[in-house]
Specification:
Blueprint (H helix, E strand, L loop, with lengths): L1 E7 L2 E22 L7 E26 L1 H17 L2 E20 L12 E20 L2
Antiparallel strand pairs: 1-5, 2-3, 4-5
Length: 139
């Protein structure tokens, strides 16, 4: 008996670097008490350090899959099926295509895109959509 499992490849979340000031301690400084007063006063002043953190933007890449997550889910699927008494027969990548196009007419003339000038662009690409995995029941 055979069993086919499809493992979906999800797109990678976009991340950006964010710089933040984090208080890492305090230091004691000496200050004059007033403009005309020469008496010195000890005060605690916070010490900050800049840290760079990677934070998700909430958007996903249009072209890049999350390979780490994808490989973990493939491994988990294979291990789960092995525990259920199945042997791996084959793994085949499923690819999907995508494209983008844009056309802009010449701003001075809008009656016809080609006759009036302007430009157009188009491109296509493929990316991994998932993995089709075939298993066979032992015995």
């Amino acid at each position: 008996m055979y069993k086919t499992v499809f493992v979906k490849a999800y797109l990678k979340q976009e991340v950006r670097e964010q710089v933040s000031n984090v208080q890492v301690g305090t230091r004691t400084i000496s200050k004059r008490k007033g403009l005309f007063d020469t008496a010195m006063v000890q005060e605690e002043e916070p010490v900050y350090e800049q840290r760079v953190e990677k934070v998700t933007t909430g958007k996903h890449s249009e072209t890049e899959i999350d390979a780490e997550d994808f490989s973990r889910r493939i491994e988990k699927t294979c291990n789960d099926m092995h525990d259920k008494g199945y042997d791996l027969v084959s793994m085949n990548e499923v690819i999907r295509g995508a494209y983008h196009y844009d056309a802009k007419p010449n701003q001075s003339r809008t009656d016809h895109l080609c006759a009036g000038g302007g430009y157009s662009i188009a491109y296509g690409y493929s990316m991994t959509d998932g993995m089709m995995i075939l298993f066979r029941k032992r015995g």
